[in-house]
Structures are given as structure tokens and as C-alpha cells.
């Protein structure tokens, strides 16, 4: 049997390589596409997206929580288990390596923990985290409990635990539709792009605000903005350079040249 030919090396666009070498402060904004190559479904894919079988308002809104907290808690337990079974991809690992060489701030829309499991420090989880639940009444943070039975199906109802302080229901730590972003997380992300020389926008569709407005803020502050995404998005026009590749392919190639 003939051995397969080696894959050709990934060619990093010259302007991006130069910008990355010269930047003293880098901000990386990551979205669902960053984790897609780890097997975590994005929200909007028509065939595999997390919303394909559900109305988002039923699972990711205060109204949905009030109407059926057992369904919401069960879905998030199911989703958290999908994340726990996934592994960081080469893009996550590359960002962790880059942080050892330079000042790299990571702000993410993702509620998973793949950046951290790859060894990176995340400045800001702008949309919260699956692994930081808290009381829906008093706001007290609760430890993530991975000892209970994991729902076998996405629509399996699981009663949420009660807060040990006030008796309220512990809710998922993700930010829902209609809720404000955590003030500290948003301020950290905005400050990062305002003070960066280079801003990479990786794997985000650019349709969810205010996160989608960060590239424009970066551009107005004088940063070079680079989009890394295999397809055009709503923020493509904001980018000085667009590299049509994926996170797991492009980021390791970029970091290897620094």
C-alpha cells in the first residue's frame, strides 16, 4: 500500500506573521468555532447545532427557567458532560503556548473550559461558564457537581439543587438571552482590545452583541484586527486581514513562526 503524501505546510499570511511578531500586547477573541474542532457543536448549524431541536427561549432565558427549571438544568448537565468528554484542540494548545512567549489576553464567548484545560489563562468568559453555577435567588456561587447521574438525552429533566444558604435553585452559569453580561468580564474584554496592538477574532459568527462590537472598538483604538475563520462573517468588514482557515490549523502555524 502506498503511504499517503505528507500534508503541505500551512502558510501564514505574511502581514499576519509580521503583526504578530511586532505586537507587544495581543488580544484574542474566541467564539464557538474555536471549540467546534474539539467536537463541541455550535449553536446555529442547521444539522448539528445545539438549538436544532429546541427553541432557545426555552433553554436560555429567565422565562424558560421559570417555566421549566428541571428541563433547563437537565439540558445544561447534558451539555456540560459533552464538554467534559471533549479535549482541547491544537488551536487551544497554541494559544496556551503563545501566552508563555508574549502578553496574550483571551476573551471568549464560549462557556466551556477548553482554553483552561489546554493550559491557557482566560481573562474573560464574557458569556459565563458551564462550570460556575450560582443561586438564582441570592447569587451565591456553587461548586460544579459532577457526581450525579448525567442525563442520557438532551431533553431529560433533572431537578436543580438547592442553595445551601437561602434554599433557592442553583442555575447554570451561562448568560441567557435578555440578561446583562457580567460587568467585570465585559470591562476586562473591552479594556484588552483597547490596549492591544493586535486583535485576533477566531471562530465567532459576529452576530451576538455586544461581543461582536469588540473588533470595531479595537479598530478605533488603533489595533490591527485579524479574522481567523473559514467563512465570511458579520465582522469580516472590521478586519484588516482575513485568514480563511480554522483555529486548529491556523493558530499552531502562526505560533510556530514566532
List the helices and strands and how they pair.
Layout lengths: L13 H9 L2 E6 L1 H5 L19 H4 L2 H6 L1 H16 L5 H10 L3 E6 L5 H4 L6 E2 L8 E2 L34 E2 L11 H12 L3 E5 L11 H7 L3 E5 L12 E3 L3 H10 L2
Parallel strand pairs: 1-2, 1-6, 2-3, 6-7, 7-8
Antiparallel strand pairs: 4-5
Helix pairs in contact: 6-10, 8-9
Protein described:
The protein is α/β, with parallel strands linked by helices and about 260 residues long. Helix 6 runs parallel beside helix 10 and helix 8 packs parallel to helix 9. The N terminus is likely disordered.
Annotation keywords:
single chain; 258 residues; alpha/beta; Rossmann fold; SIR2/SIRT2 'Small Domain'; 2 domains; six-stranded parallel beta sheet; two-stranded antiparallel ribbon; 8 strands; elongated; disordered N terminus
Amino acid at each position: 500500500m502506498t503511504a499517503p503524501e505528507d500534508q503541505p505546510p500551512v502558510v501564514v499570511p505574511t502581514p499576519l506573521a509580521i503583526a504578530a511578531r511586532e505586537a507587544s500586547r495581543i488580544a484574542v477573541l474566541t467564539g464557538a468555532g474555536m471549540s467546534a474542532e474539539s467536537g463541541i457543536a455550535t449553536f446555529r448549524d442547521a444539522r448539528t447545532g445545539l438549538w436544532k431541536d429546541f427553541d432557545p427561549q426555552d433553554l436560555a432565558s429567565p422565562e424558560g427557567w421559570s417555566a421549566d427549571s428541571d428541563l433547563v438544568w437537565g439540558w445544561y448537565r447534558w451539555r456540560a458532560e459533552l464538554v467534559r468528554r471533549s479535549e482541547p484542540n491544537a488551536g487551544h494548545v497554541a494559544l496556551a503556548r503563545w501566552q508563555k512567549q508574549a502578553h496574550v489576553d483571551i476573551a471568549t464567548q464560549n462557556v466551556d473550559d477548553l482554553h483552561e484545560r489546554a493550559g491557557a489563562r482566560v481573562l474573560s468568559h464574557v458569556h459565563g461558564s458551564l462550570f460556575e453555577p450560582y443561586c438564582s435567588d441570592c447569587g451565591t456561587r456553587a461548586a460544579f457537581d459532577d457526581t450525579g447521574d448525567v442525563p442520557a438525552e438532551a431533553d431529560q429533566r433533572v431537578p436543580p439543587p438547592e442553595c445551601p444558604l437561602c434554599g433557592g435553585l442553583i442555575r447554570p452559569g451561562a448568560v441567557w438571552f435578555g440578561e446583562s453580561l457580567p460587568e467585570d468580564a465585559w470591562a476586562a474584554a473591552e479594556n484588552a482590545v483597547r490596549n492591544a496592538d493586535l486583535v485576533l477574532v477566531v471562530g465567532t459568527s459576529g452576530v451576538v452583541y455586544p461581543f461582536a462590537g469588540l473588533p470595531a472598538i479595537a479598530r478605533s483604538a488603533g489595533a490591527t484586527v485579524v479574522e481567523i475563520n473559514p467563512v465570511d462573517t458579520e465582522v469580516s468588514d472590521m478586519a484588516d486581514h482575513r485568514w480563511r482557515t480554522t483555529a486548529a490549523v491556523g493558530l499552531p502555524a502562526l505560533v510556530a513562526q514566532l
